[in-house]
Amino acid sequence: MNHGNKVNHLGRTASHRKAMLSNMAGSLIIHKKITTTVAKAKELRKFVEPLITKAKDDTTHSRRMVFSALKHKDPVKELFGDVAAKVADRPGGYTRILRTGNRLGDNAELCIMELVDYNETYTTGKKAPAKTRRKRAAGAKKSVAKPAAEVSEENETAVAAPAAGKKSKAKAPKAEANATPEVPEIEQPGEGTPDTEDSAKTESAEDAI
Description:
With 209 residues, the chain is mainly α. Helix content is 52%, strand content 10%.
């Protein structure tokens, strides 16, 4: 029975467990992503997320508290520098666990643990647009129906306008045709038909006789 046992000792002594979580937290802060088992990742989440929250308040006391947990200067510098600025607007939930399957040797459940704001696959960098509320006008104007006489007059004018346009288009080509008179063909001098040439030869022969 596992009643009341909220802490997973991970099969280690207290000192060994504390040193392991400190080392894993430093690797996660520097590399932003580590591969481990699901059981260790769940315990690491409880260890590292309070440290990230303390890094938002950059004071001497906060730095000393974080250094006492991580035991190294490089993760502390990275945490209070780049990581704190990246997660400044996030109110918690700084890490994500992605399960990757079971290990071949002992069938342990593996996962990838990463900082949420450093994964470009899930973070697009675009904020959702704010929803705007529209107010309806109190007294909306209703369309007034026109009397039947006005509607019939508008329809008649609309029908008459296209008919007038068609008549004017039909008359235009006739006016252009009347404006250009036909010119008769003029024969050029020196050109004669064969019949006229034969008659001229016969007349000259009779005169000679």
